[in-house]
Amino acid sequence: MNTRAVPPRTLGHYFKETVRQAWPVLVSAWASMAFAVADTTMAGHSSAADLQAMALSVSIYLTVFVGLMGVVHALIPIIGQHYGARRLESAGKAWGQGVWLALGLSAAGAVTLLFPNVWLMFSGDIDPVVMSKISNYLLALIVAMPAALVFRTIYCLGTAVSRPKVVMAINLVSIPFKVLFNWIFIFGQFGVPAMGAAGAGLATAVVSWLMLGMGLWVLKHDSFFKQFQLRLGRIDWPTQKELLRLGLPMGGSYLIEVCAFTFMALMVAREGMFVTGSHQIMANLAALCYMMPMAIGIASASLTAQAIGAEDPARAKLTGQAGFLLALAGAALTATLLLVFKPQIIALYTSDAQVGALAALLLQILPFFHLCDAMQCINTYLLRAYKVAVIPLIMQIFALIGVGLVGGWVLGFGPAAGTLQPVINTLMPGAPTGAATLWLMAGLGLGMSALLLRFWYWRTQAQYQREKSAYL
Hints:
By secondary structure, the protein is an all-alpha fold. The protein is built from 18 helices and no strands. The N and C termini lie close together (9 Å).
């Protein structure tokens, strides 16, 4: 039994602890999302073709990157439990093995980005100009991927040991560099030719390597991280096996979530350039809103993993309760802000009147979508703290792919297209049928996923409490 002293066991205390760790994660996530917002807004002011190329390219890249990132994020519960148990050298070793894993995954991911036509076959006929922009954008992101994935290992380490401000600071510092390089490469400055959407990809590659350099410098010079004896070392196959055993289903869950959005974008492209642009605004804003429950989920999972490592079931239960209630309150606040400031939000994204009008119609359902998204998010992260990932993956495949994506295709573009038109006329009158149907079904799928995951978390947490009670 670990006898390390723990904080007072009150729910209020863990609210404060979760907020203390979540806000830097949230700021860091918003800073990372600022990259995507800068790309979307700056490309949107370049041309409608650049905005469509951006929408499709980002959908493809995020499908690949987020899935691989999810595998790397297995480091968070693993390092968190080591840290809670004061196995500091083991935590440092796990980080080094995570770097090897990230490098291997980046090579695999690069191969998938070399063939955009495989992805775009779902989108019907794409203008050759847009196709060229997509190919160039993805080539630039192949260069960015190794740096971005290795940087995620630094993110995982800082988060798992309750030091999220390190990555937050790096992300904040990187924003002006991203905007600067976007301005240079997208619009053509200082003699550089205007590259449009492809310029945004090149800017991302440059800044990703800058961020990795800053992260490694911090790990080397910050005295706090010296206690972990961080090192790359040789590849340790037992550790790699542990990472993959947890990371592959975690990556699968990330992939399922992002796949739904990727194939939504690819199908929406059938409805034309303006609908694609409005869908991209909706998707980008939904992702931005997701950052709050994700930050709370990551903070709660890290604190819960530390409690599990310290063999403290009461603390693990309270950190989970605090995280869930905070995520629910945050989702309600976000939904309210979306309703109140919808016109101002759209104006920030586009100056095209037709794209803005379509986006305004779709955004009417976003508050409901976000509430469901937030609830499935927090439950997923809490389960990962207990190293439970396979069952959530199965649940998400059924709810998000079966109900959300397949159901959205059948009712929006397939044999039953138009079935939900009465619902669309009530909730989003005038919205394009296909895009509106996809968003409705995606929200329903997220709601089902949230309920299933919550049930499994209750089951997992109760089982852990019983096991520890019997042991004590």
